[in-house]
Write a structure and sequence with these properties.
Oligomer: single chain
Radius of gyration: 22 Å
CATH topology: Cytochrome p450
CATH class: Mainly Alpha
Strand content: 5-15%
Bound molecules: protoporphyrin IX containing FE
Number of domains: 1
Strand order of the largest sheet: 1-2-8-5-3
Distance between the termini: 53 Å
CATH superfamily: Cytochrome P450
Helix content: 40-55%
Structural class: alpha+beta
Shape: globular
Number of helices: 17
Largest sheet: 5 strands, mixed
CATH architecture: Orthogonal Bundle
Order of helices and strands: HHHEEHEHEHHHHHHHHHEEEEHHHEE
Length: 496
């Protein structure tokens, strides 16, 4: 295990926003002296146990309380439980998992010698491959599959190549986004942030990832992002709490998987668009990574739609909420001062390098990723029997058992983070803060790790925080302050 972690401490390809810090031993490395304990918790009666857990998870408790209550009840951060989806129409899905809810036990999810990741992106339930051209795309492949190596390297290469257009494309699309928001505020007093944000993300990411310009198709430019939204929603609905009126949510959203044909029209239009406009990327997949055109197109769409657009839509929303939170009073002024000191208000000065010098901006981004990891659940299946360590005990895991980590709780482990429940914008500054990057896991690996074909860490591990830093820097070049309330922007004060 420690060898694997040491490998992950190297520098990452392409850009690297990670500071080079002395790699402190990961919490999983000093465990042999711990007492062996039987995993507490149970799966309950057949059918009844899973249904009762499902109702707690989605309805009576919600995911966070669900896991918290079971930590309290079992007096352990490692325990057996069920997670949805379950009976009636998910008969082939096994809801039994071993929850791993502290920093130390969670790290086992990254160790590809002891776990495998085939088809477990959202748990034992896997959405139909009809959503992805009848193919298993990269995120569902295990590292032992040669196709994973081809696709992971293709993705890493795609990101690397896009780095020359990433910043200028982002700035130009952000100009359009802020103009729309300003115009909405002047017309109706406020602008819902999500819509312009998703339009910006869609055009920016489509250009950088597939090379295609959305403005070449009126339909894609106007509705492409909603096609992606509904395509993603149908895949993940059985596993996600939406917050609709109960029991309607249980009956209509969590009892069966919705079929692909409901979103087939939109998805096929996106496929056609990428086939036509993304020819360079497709050729690269074929000639340099030995992929078929079909594999390249559906993987590009999954990376663009599910990974990038889906991930950033959630993450930027929580970034705006962190800026709006009363508890972070005065933070906008501090961020603005740091941005203006480094680059003033000239957007042509924005670059990957310059935002890496903005310590508070970066720390604010990392703290948002800690408090609100955009992908809250991670799964991995035991490749063999092994002993899993928490901070205080060892547990015997049998080959084939499914581990489930709920990151929002893991990232508030008091053994690692001081005042873990508090949002502390400067937490990741200075030497002590940089050391904490070893334990920031939003990307399915430490922020000091290195995504490659031998692991399942997000290939955009560095791009995601640096893009969020660019977003904030651009915003505070443009505005002195932005007033955000319940997902809407109600006022912007232009840079004085
Ligand atoms: C805020 C944005 C993003 C978040 C929160 C995010 C998060 C993650 C997470 C948690 C995983 C691991 C999933 C698992 O195995 O359990 C992952 C994997 C992956 N991500 Fe990201 N990601 C983001 C953006 C991106 C972008 C921009 C790209 C590519 C351009 C990307 C491509 C991928 C791919 C291909 C994988 C699968 C890796 C593998 O199979 O080895 N992601 N991402």
């Amino acid at each position: 295990m420690s060898a694997m972690m040491a490998r992950m401490m190297g520098t990452s390809p392409g850009i690297s926003s990670s500071p080079s810090i002395a790699s402190s031993p990961p919490p999983s490395s000093q465990s042999s002296s711990l007492p062996v304990r039987t995993i507490p918790g149970s799966y309950g009666w057949p059918l009844l146990g899973p249904i009762s857990d499902r109702l707690d998870y989605f309805w009576f408790q919600g995911p966070e309380t669900f896991f918290k209550k079971r930590i309290e009840k079992n007096k352990s951060t490692v325990f057996r439980t069920n997670v949805p989806p379950t009976f009636p129409l998910f008969l082939g899905v096994n809801p039994n998992v071993v929850a791993v809810l502290d920093v130390k036990s969670f790290t086992h999810l990254f160790d590809m010698e002891i776990v495998e990741k085939a088809n477990v992106l959202v748990g034992d339930f896997m959405p139909s491959t009809k959503f992805t051209g009848d193919l298993r795309v990269c995120a569902y492949l295990d590292t032992s599959e040669s196709k994973h190596t081809q696709l992971k390297n293709f993705t890493i290469d795609t990101l690397k190549r896009s780095s020359s257009i990433w910043v200028p494309t982002m700035v130009s699309k952000l100009d359009t986004m802020w103009e729309t928001i300003e115009s909405d505020i002047s017309k109706s007093g406020s602008a819902a942030a999500l819509l312009p944000l998703q339009q910006f993300l869609f055009s920016f990411l489509t250009k950088c990832i597939t090379g295609a310009d959305t403005s070449t198709s009126q339909e894609i430019s106007k509705s492409g992002f909603t096609m992606l939204d509904s395509w993603i929603a149908l895949q993940v609905l059985p596993t996600v709490k939406v917050g609709l009126f109960q029991p309607l949510e249980e009956i209509f959203l969590h009892s069966f998987a919705y079929p692909f044909w409901l979103v087939k029209g939109g998805y096929n239009k996106l496929v056609e668009f990428v086939e036509k406009q993304g020819t360079e990327a497709i050729q690269r997949g074929e000639t340099q990574f030995n992929l078929t055109a079909k594999e390249t197109v559906h993987n590009l769409l999954f990376i663009l739609g599910f990974n990038a657009f889906g991930g950033f839509s959630i993450f930027f929303n929580s970034l705006l909420s962190s800026l709006a939170d009363d508890k972070n009073d005065g933070i906008q002024e501090k961020l603005r001062n740091e941005v203006r000191e480094k680059i003033g208000t000239d957007s042509s000065k924005l670059s990957f390098e310059v935002v890496k010098e903005m310590e508070l901006v970066q720390s604010f981004v990392y703290e948002t990723l800690r408090i609100n990891p955009p992908v809250p659940l991670q799964y991995a299946r035991a490749r063999k029997d092994f002993k899993l360590a928490s901070h205080d005990s060892l547990y015997e895991i049998k080959k084939g058992e499914l581990l489930c980590g709920y990151q929002p709780l893991v990232m508030r482990d008091s053994k690692v983070f001081d005042n873990p429940e508090n949002f502390e914008p400067g937490r990741f500054t200075q030497e002590k803060g940089k050391e904490l990057l070893n334990y920031l896991y939003w990307s399915n690996g430490p922020q000091t790790g290195s995504p490659n074909e031998a692991n399942k860490q997000c290939p955009a591990k560095d791009y995601v925080p640096v893009t969020a830093s660019l977003f904030l820097a651009n915003m505070f070049q443009r505005y002195d302050s932005v007033t955000i309330s319940s997902g809407s922007i109600t006022a912007v004060k232009k840079a004085s």
